[in-house]
Amino acid sequence: xxxxxxxxxxxxxxxxxxxxxxxxxxxxxxxxxxxxxxxxxxxxxxxxxxxxxxxxxxxxxxxxxxxxxxxxxxxxxxxxxxxxxxxxxxxxxxxxxxxxxxxxxxxxxxxxxxxxxxxxxxxxxxxxxxxxxxxxxxxxxxxxxxxxxxxxxxxxxxxxxxxxxxxxxxxxxxxxxxxxxxxxxxxxxxxxxxxxxxxxxxxxxxxxxxxxxxxxxxxxxxxxxxxxxxxxxxxxxxxxxxxxxxxxxxxxxxxxxxxxxxxxxxxxxxxxxxxxxxxxxxxxxxxxxxxxxxxxxxxxxxxxxxxxxxxxxxxxxxxxxxxxxxxxxxxxxxxxxxxxxxxxxxxxxxxxxxxxxxxx
Length: 360
Ligand code: IPM
Ligand code: MG
Description:
By secondary structure, this protein is of the alpha/beta class. It is 41% helix and 20% strand. It starts with a strand and ends with a helix.
């Protein structure tokens, strides 16, 4: 039976990078993968067409699909809008609407890109860490929230950081289970010295850890974790953390690997249904210029095949094709080093497809 993939290109560079990922999917389809692609609007593109960042049709398509591929959302054009109807709400609405509470953000350094990192090559050589970010709770979703006039007649902005025990427990289990499949070390990141919500987080993670005696659990405050990630990132195997801390630390971790343009992500529900997207944003400054790096999106397709579509063999082939083009010296401008050939978005996508087809 054919599996359906909902394709949501979004804004900025989103349509350009998703177009390259689609070429990869079509190549696999020609090689026998039974998939159907369905496309819909999200983010600013959806606001322009329908007035809403997440039209009902888009959410329905995403719910009905076996997996979702998303480009990126947002841009300066929509920044003047009320926060409740901005493009980013489309993305948050998809995450919440599909119960995608577990966000897996691997930061892997390809040996070919060792010199593209701003850190010394020996600090990042062979880096392979996984950030498990809680994605449907915490301060990004907590109520109450808003901007109001307080009792003194002054305006104030407020948000709520709140985590229930079950929300912490289920993401902790994803962290422990991910660690079990890797080096069996899990570091939980919090700010338990200041925030009660994350003191509670630490207590729950510690309790859940008793079910995983073979995993070595440690805890670290988020400020220290940010420092340790640039000081000695290889001390980490799997990190599990809240929505906001994971948002920040995963951007930081991406630069260890040379470019945020390289990192894919998977956002999963309890049954491994998922949405797959590059961790970078819509990069409006380079949108429409055929300059963006499509590799994070192409690698997101590999994660989709592995986690949601049960096609690990094709996932391996995509990852091998990406390694091949990097080894061949192809670089988009974000990972440019002297002596390498700078290629466009389309050239990079085409090169991956050629390498992939050679292995199919
Ligand atoms: C991310 C992005 C999003 C987030 C934005 C675009 C809402 O930064 O996926 O990391 O904050 O989660
Ligand atoms: Mg982010």
